[in-house]
Amino acid sequence: MSRPGQQSHLHPHHQPLPVQYQTTPEGIKAAEDYYNNEETSQSPSTNAAMSSPARFALTDLLPLPNSALKIPRLGFGVYLSPTQTCIASCLAALKLGYRHIDSAQYYRNEAEVGEAVRQSGLERSQVFITTKILAAGGSTDKSYKKCVESVEKIDPGEGGYVDLFLIHSASSGKEKRKEMWLALERLLEGGKTKSIGVSNYGVGHIEEMKEYAKIWPPMVNQIELHPFSQQRTIASYCAKNSIVVEAYSPLVRNQRAHDPTLVSLAKKHLKTPAQILIRFCLQKGWVPLPKSDTPSRIEENADVFGFELDERDMEALDGLDEGEKGAIVEAVVN
User: Fold this and answer.
1) Which residue in 13, 168, 205, 226 is the catalytic one?
2) Largest CA distance in the chain
3) Among this protein's residues, is 168 annotated catalytic?
4) Are 261 and 205 in contact (CB under 8 A)?
5) Cis peptide before 250 (omega within 30 of 0)
6) Which listed residue (21, 98, 107, 144) is catalytic?
7) How much is the pTM?
8) Is 282 left (phi over 0), alpha (psi -120 to 50) or beta?
9) Is 107 one of the annotated active-site residues of the chain?
């Protein structure tokens, strides 16, 4: 359903150029054929996507509820990446074919993300950018102003926008959660964001929104997700309500890289433990947001579409779940 300020068509960034075609002239026609193939935009709920996960691609998109917008299946995280490093890392990611960058007010690098997109030579509409409001301002107007300031850092000038604006945390209390959501709805209505959502929200937080939200459900819930903390209650709830689930810290900040199950699967598939973790998220239907400032690892983290974890692999990874104890940042309260 379209709303004022929302796009009613697909932006060009929703079909980024496949990596293998970016620098080879002979790939142009193949890329055009790719773009004309409706199957390249898949939802994890479709039979084709679930039965043939190896068909996932860096160019894949997922539909957002209450919106004509689609979100790239793989994102690039910039958590606390400092100024010049952030610009360089984003440029490396964009060159490799990433078209989805996840920032936040808390990360203090919104302006750097915007600068990287401008330096990349890509059109603004070719890159899906997310940011998050950290804390309520004290009124809906003040929270709205904080959000507008973020948009102006990322995409300054008339017509500037972000693709997705999230509430960063549910920890502020009911009234402040309401204040921030109303500010995001206003931002959406004014066209300064294309979609809105939440982060670190449990089932109760999302149900509570029905009391005050004009737009429900939220389009996205970004939570910590990896085999060691699978947050099955909220993940299942989001799936039932068509809320796209984004997975932050999918690499567990490298703290579990030597886990025997991960190491074994990495050897089996001739991949790294990080690639196994990202692939796990993809096959779960989540949108992973791996973060790295090392160019070789940025490239490695995108090389997860040429293999498939089989049923036994997924069962082995499912068996690693430690519930709340497995979280390294936050397990939501349901």
Assistant:
1) 168
2) 56
3) yes
4) no
5) no
6) 107
7) 0.85
8) alpha
9) yes
